[in-house]
Amino acid sequence: MKDTNFVFFVLILAVLNVGAELTFDKYPEHFIFGVGSAAYVTEGAWDIDGKGPSIWDEFSIKSGWTESSDGGQIAANGYNYVKEDVQRLKQLGVSHYKLSLSWPRLLPHGTNSSINEAGFQYYDYVFDELLANGIKPFVALYHWDLPQTLQDDGGWLSSDSITWFKDYANLCFERYGDRVKLWTTIEDPFSIAYKGYVTGEHAPGFQHSGNEYKVGHQLLLAHAEVYQLYQSKFRGHQGGEVGLTISSDWYVASTEDEDDIDAARRALIFRVGWFLEPLYRGDYPRIMKQRIAHKRKTLGYRHQKLPKFTSEDKAKLIGATDFIGISHFKTKLVTGQVNTSPSPGFYNDQDLVLSVDPSWPKLEYRPELNHESDRRLTGFGLEELLKYVTSSYDRPVIYVTQNGLDTCGTLKDQHRIEYIRDYTNSVLQAIKCGSEVRGYFLWSLMDGFDWEKGYKSKSGLYYVDFDRDDRPRYPRSSVEFYRSLIAHRGLTEDLISYRAYAQDRDEFYYGKFPDHFEWGVATSAYQIEGGWNEDGKGPSIWDKFAHKGRLLGKVTGDVTCDSYHLYEEDVRILSELGVNFYHLSLSWSRILPDGTAGSYNQKGVDYYNNIINALLARNITLMVALYHWDLPQALEDKGGFRSDLIVDWFEDYARICFEQFGDRVKLWLTFNEAYVISFFGYGVGEHAPGVRDPGVGVYKAAHNIIRSHTRAYHLYTNHFKEKYGGSVSIALDIEWKEPLTDSEEDYLAADRAIQFKLGWFGNAIFGGSGDYPEVMKHYVAEKSRRQGFSSSRLPEFTEEEKKLNNGAFDYLGLNHYTTHLVTQSNTTTMRPHYEDDQDIEILNDPCWAPCKADWLRVNPWGIRYILRWIKEHYGNPPIYITENGRATDDSLEDWDRIYYYKYYINEVLKAIRLDNVDVRGYSAWSLMDNLEWTNGFDERFGFYHVDFTSSKRPRRPKQSAYFYRELIANNGFPR
């Protein structure tokens, strides 16, 4: 060991703590670029075509350690995707593909007595397909998936394992050696020995200190036997190379103190020297032998020493490798510290503590949520590890066989791009410093079953949808980056600045909202009022729907928050919250019990007058929605929104509301979430009135909603605006639709998804044409034609109606909660259905945090993106965000809600200040916990907790209420 060089490396890094600058230098001509995977991680088909069970098949299902109950039974379904995956490799431009063979697929019981020809033919097929496409295989004989039968006979603790492995390798060399020229015997022996036999994190799940050294010993001897086998029997006519792949972090002394420097040195010796010293010097590192013997003896475990190599062993080990494979992912700070634990252990033997330097850049999707993350951008660690191996072991040939970033899995994987850029650059720097590095393999080609992390950890260039049995793949942004890096054999100016998304997308913006900005909070009549049949109120469609047991827990809105009797308490907490305005809705059936002007109910009008006056007395203005889903049942009995008469009924209702409340209400909304009314109410029937007509009725209802809105808007403009000076709009709900991949098809699909939802209603009113979006008209008409309809299922506006629709707004009300991923999907079904009309598939990004409402994922930047879309497509109309919020559990400590509001509202501020979107106000959903429609009282969106078990329905502020009050007081986010 060249200790002086090592100490020099450690000291330099401890002081500078930086990596090399990015360079435009090119890789040597012979340098190979590849990508890797492993059999158990990707193949699946765990019991197909004669394959026997592996230790991971057993372990992943029964151990309880893994994150996924089904283990790798399907994994990425690679067994059935050979041709397709090889084409992905070809498109990447890699010269080599590193994969492993499944020992139990070839030998179901692990020995030559159980040869499975179907398994051998499978890998014949894989290799032939690779070579036919100009891609050379780099094969690991063993990547952790020992046949379970051999484990039952002792596994790697048995001395017989050396013979088992040699016989298995012999068959592989005989069958595939004509096509495979790069072999690695054993992948990462450290993890096999330590995680598999000591901590139990990996299969076979043993937990016994001391096993690691015995297993490591067996693995080294097995490697040496296989190397000598190839050398003597196959090298002459096959001409291949055989190596061993080790894994190691890089270790940096946390200070310049001698104890920390020595501890960093020990960490490397225990991790790297454990396996490389025997191959280059015939024995384990001296310091490792001494410390283990001393520590174990002190603790009373005299028998737990490093095993000894015989003279014959040493002779076989020395030089038993043509190259070193290095698997590297992270860098750690090391502090020397005596371990006082009475139990022996691999790290106890070293007397050190590992940590992460907080100054190293984080590689987390939302770093503010992952304060303790050890995912850091430390490419310098790979460079230093390569130089250390080079200087310590006589400049061996090296392949970086595994290097990559595991993340939560977002497809716009900017952090993986940064990781690849930094780490590949570090490989080039090591080459320039004299390291004989001949290749780099990115881990991994696609997402798979990530061992003890299950399916939650994603390391692939390709995203795999594990929610589907066929496991479709989609390219991440890093695919194009890596492809271009390979094509240019190094970095270019474009690659140095390459980004998957804008630099400022996730950055927090400090600043204030405009002085005129208004802050509010929202509720709706059916969700909070109760008093369902009091003082002359007629039944609504939601009263009937709930009474039929259609809500979760068979609850109803008969009482809910009891705001019909407790409105003064509502006004009090609104004042306490500090809002400028209150966004509420009127109950049509409370004002007009049968929905028509002839059933005018003065007590209902008086109720809303009382609320309005109480709010104004507290200097709280109003935003009033005429309709928030609760149609009088009497009108539904006459056809509801499927009847053209609804336009007249709604105009009459609107007129009465304008007449009674217009002197005090300055912001009106005709409809709240017209999409929900149409699709859930009249399409799939999941909401009241429960009509299932997704191909025709859904479009008819939407058509009449637009016509009703337009009629009410012009009614106000012509008869009330001059007198009262108010504004009228409609509140539309829309998620941001993010293209799943960077392909043009997905960009078009995402835009089409917005047009089919927001544009369905918004284009006629805000888009300038007075009509539905052209893409929507085209798709529905074409689908209708194929289905045998004589005309499009999408109704048509008359020319006069288009003129009335166009510009029928004073502002735009926007409800936004979440974001969707969208990909092109050619729907072949012949069923008439709004969803099938769009030819899209909706997915969720695995990095977007879920919440109590299963339809809602947290993705703050989505609100800024949809605001920009509206500006670009609708001419930057004044916008009020009329609903935005998230559900949490039944707790006053709602930190998740605070996070949601902080970052979503900050994105609104960015839209105003950076993108010049004309957002005038924001109302959060919701003031208090209430009846969340079909989800009953299970989802809680409120700033105020409501105890629904108490007849008094007390309201108590949550932590988020204090946050929102302070935000309003500051009018934003001052530093």
TrEMBL record:
Origin organism of this chain?
Answer: Biomphalaria glabrata (Bloodfluke planorb)
Task: Give the matching SUPFAM superfamilies.
Answer: (Trans)glycosidases (SSF51445)
Q: How does it assemble?
A: Homodimer.
UniProt GO molecular function:
beta-glucosidase activity; galactosylceramidase activity
Q: Where does the record locate the signal sequence feature?
A: 1-20
Keyword Iron (UniProt): no
Highest taxon above the source species: Eukaryota
| Family per similarity comment | Belongs to the glycosyl hydrolase 1 family. Klotho subfamily.
Example GO biological process: carbohydrate catabolic process
Q: Name the active site residues.
A: E883
Enzyme Commission code(s) on record: 3.2.1.21, 3.2.1.46
Fetch the Gene3D superfamilies from UniProt. Glycosidases (3.20.20.80)
User: Carries keyword Mitochondrion?
Assistant: no
User: What is the reaction catalyzed?
Assistant: beta-D-glucosyl-(1<->1)-sphing-4-enine + H2O = sphing-4-enine + D-glucose; beta-D-glucosyl-(1<->1)-N-octadecanoylsphing-4-enine + H2O = N-octadecanoylsphing-4-enine + D-glucose; a beta-D-galactosyl-(1<->1')-N-acylsphing-4-enine + H2O = an N-acylsphing-4-enine + D-galactose; beta-D-galactosyl-(1<->1)-sphing-4-enine + H2O = sphing-4-enine + D-galactose
Q: Which Pfam families match?
A: Glyco_hydro_1
Q: This protein is called what?
A: Cytosolic beta-glucosidase
Q: Which UniProt keywords apply?
A: Glycoprotein, Glycosidase, Hydrolase, Signal
